[in-house]
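Assess this:
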Amino acid sequence: MRDVTLDADAPTSAHETALACLRDAIEAVLPYRVVRDSVSLDGETLRVAEESYDLGDFDRIVVVGGGKAANGVADALETVLGDRIDAGAVVTPNPDESDASNGSAGSSDGGRIERLPGDHPVPSERGVESSRRLLEVLDGADERTLVLAAITGGGSAVIPTPAEGVSLSDLRTTTDELLRSGADISELNAVRKHLSTLKGGGLAERAAPATVVGLMLSDVVGNDLGVIASGPTAPDETTYDDALSVLDRYDLSVPESVRDRLERGAAGELDETPTRGDAVFERVHNHVLADGHTALSAAREAARERGYDALVLSSRVRGEAREAAKTHAAVAEEAAATGDPLSPPAVVLSGGECTVTVRGDGEGGPNLEFCLSSARELDTRAVVAAVDSDGEDGGTTVAGAVVDEGTVESEDEAAAALAENDALPYLRERGTLIRTGPTGTNVNDLRVVVVGGEAGHAADD
């Protein structure tokens, strides 16, 4: 992972603490480190978290999967299993990059697992081609095949396998509409699972009767297995009716082929996705190896090491980013005024997945809007930082930003930027952007509120 850097030239110690917390949080969920801590080989016994698998029971071991952390998962599995892996293919937005911590070049050749390209957040033709190769790796899987499945955030987009009658163009248009609507990830995936052949338990169905072991890095609030990467190895609790309800709830204009498929499914003309109790899941074992709370726990330790009292407010914050910002600003003000929930110097942390309902044509993402909205609300000396753990907030090239009570000088300018969903240029002009480059992982949003210590606007110190 590249360094966490701030555009500002002279941040205060509170700014430095916020960045240190974010840096340690992201490093704690780098997939190579996570998998090496959770997966080990002892003779013929493969241990994954608390479960063990006797490799003598299998004739073949294959690796498939995808998402933003899939490359690092593949690196770790090759380190642990080496030439015991017979074949593999993972799809990722950055197939030539690996965790900086593992010393691997991360190339798409030279190992047992192919690294193939896909795109996020909107699926692409190259993702479709890569997905075909992934399916080829699964061909011939039987009862003596062990399938290790890397299921990580972003997998829904990078592994597009459009269902019959739905074109890639239709899938792209629908995804765009959903992303702009403010629909949360569960709603988004309820639709995508019914427009794809691998999502919603489809990979487990394709691999059956093989033993499937899901290695998951969760970017989903509450770690719902059916939502992480649209649940390719998990039972699907949603239905065609649920997918139609999402379209209607947000009044989305989608291609005719999409609505036709969902309506046919709701009428019973198409098979539902496999759900709990289906035989395809009898030999499926899913393991969540890291999530947002893993990252926040590391950030809490970083704050304590720097002399701050620290707590994790929640790893499950969701809703409109600008509204969540008001709550976090209120927490900072309460801490400064009354010592609740912590007495300064203190660090309050949160994670989760906020959304943005797009009404303007500006540049930004949920974390950038969160920061700008926080800066408007702050009425005490505090520093607030927020990033998307993948390093690309809302499809931008920055991770997020760090602000304080002095960031906003003109309320009218800040309000206008929010109205146009144009937080990025506003924060760029004030030197508050946080850059990491693509981190190779994804456990969603991470937020830090620093109260006390050397907090406040750098220009005032």
Observations:
- The two ends are 31 Å apart (CA to CA).
- The chain has two domains: 5-26+293-453, 30-161+196-238+273-290.
- The chain is about 35% helix and 20% strand.
